[in-house]
Amino acid sequence: MQRAPLILIIALLLPMGAVAERAPSSFSIARSLLAASSSSGNAYTAGASVVITAPVAGDLSAFGGTIVTAARVSGDELLLAGSVSSRAPVSGDLRVAGGSVRIEEPVSGDLVAFGLSVYDSGRAQGSVFIIAVNATLANGAAGPVTIYGNNISLAGDFMGNVDIVASGRVTLSASTTIVGKLSYEAPEPAAIPASATIIGGVEYTNASYLPDVGTSRILALVSVGFFIFVRILGALILAGLLSGLFPRLAEAITARAYMKRPRSILLTTLLGFAMLVATPILFVMLLLTFVGIGLALLLLIAYALLTLLALLYAGILLGGILARRYARRETILWHDGVLGMLALSFITLVPFIGLLIVFLLTAFSAGALLTIFFNFAFPREERTSELL
């Protein structure tokens, strides 16, 4: 039963005309197609809306957005559409796929249906194979029945075995008769009324599709791990791009960390700390005034952008420090930014101390960026613009 999707695809792709007797065929394609003249052989139709009102002596193959068959088909039927309504008897097999499938008249051969919703009240004389979200057999079936779906409803007389795999509910209507055996997998037992008759017996397999506690924990860990991996990978890419595209800015920030006066490093860190902490307070105060709402939104955008840059340049700063100390060079390359961000990501995993180090580096980077941007907006030296 696990090979059901493969069986369905093969069944839908089998060329019906290959086993039929050779006969004159008709081909019709139109946006809105009404087939009102009978066909002496096979009929092939396609359109956004297809309506068959004349008998077909051979096989019928129809493709479209909406298909309605209101005349007998002497051969097999292959219907592929968004909405399918079969309102006439089919002397051969019926293969149908669509979003909404409704079969109202008998099918002399086998029935294969695939759709979001499948409703069959025509009673197929052969075997029945259905894959649908919601499936209903309202008039039973003469042959064996296999159904894969979510919610499945059965009614009428079933002369063969009924095999069901459901992720939702299985329901039998009153006075339903199953001559063969009812075998079904579902999260809960089927609703079987007392008036239903199952001669071959019932075989129920409890199949819960919800993960247990152990599986849920594994899935949660995998999800968190994947999120952390994607976050780190994105940070590495952005750090590499920034250090590669704006090396002078990265070198300027790194050079500030090598100032001989500790007082300058402390002031730069305090400036970044003030920006990271005081800006949200100012944002809330501006929101309290009607005039300041627009300014608050602009401030929020600038704050988010500067915080992101500060966090990225914290990794680049760490990479620049490593490059100066171990590679003995002041030039910062793109892989220095990637290496620094990778090291910063590992530092983050250290409880308490790691977060403190990351915050201090971010605050220093924010202060350095504010100083450089201020000097760029109000230049005092001609070389300031070269940093950007």
- Structure annotation, total helices: 7
Strand content: 25-35%
Unreliable stretches: 1-21, 384-388
The main sheet comes to:
13 strands, parallel
Radius of gyration: 35 Å
Class by alpha and beta content: alpha/beta
- What letter string, H or E per element, gives the SSE order? HEEEEEEEEEEEEEEEEHHHHHH
**Structurally, how many domains make up the residues?**
2
Overall form: elongated
**Record field, number of beta strands:** 16
* Average pLDDT number: 84
Helix content: 40-55%
User: What is the distance, rounded to the nearest whole angstrom, between the alpha carbons of the first and last residues?
Assistant: 65 Å
In short:
This protein has two domains: 4-206, no CATH class; 213-387, no CATH class. Helices cover 40% and strands 26% of the residues.
